[in-house]
């Protein structure tokens, strides 16, 4: 069975799930590339690629509890509008996304990352 040898995590150190996912990666012997996505947000193309690799639509990877979500009226927005909002307001990007040489997941819950290790 193949095992992951490399990983990149879109990380928010203030998020418990993100911290737990990072710990799981390290416990598996992987020192991932850590991208603090609020400081270095993905480009539109990068986010589209992550979503595609994870098999998710923007509406499935948006943080609905963020105040800006309601302010922008995203509950009834198109997928393109949600994606645009995620690019303009990276806090709306659900976390953590993890990409390994075996695949990409939105690691919620954190144990989901084990699917690509």
Automatic annotation (TrEMBL):
A Pfam family matched in the record: ArsC
Keyword Oxidoreductase in record: yes
Molecular-function GO term, any one: arsenate reductase (glutaredoxin) activity
Gene3D superfamilies in the record: Glutaredoxin (3.40.30.10)
GO biological process: response to arsenic-containing substance
Enzyme Commission number(s) of this protein: 1.20.4.1
Stored InterPro entries: Arsenate_reductase, Arsenate_reductase-like, Thioredoxin-like_sf
Record keywords, A-Z: Oxidoreductase
Entry superkingdom: Bacteria
CDD domains cross-referenced by the UniProt entry: ArsC_ArsC
UniProt xrefs under NCBIfam families: arsC
Family statement: Belongs to the ArsC family.
Name assigned to this protein: arsenate reductase (glutathione/glutaredoxin)
Origin species: Rhodococcus rhodnii LMG 5362
Lineage of source species: Bacteria, Bacillati, Actinomycetota, Actinomycetes, Mycobacteriales
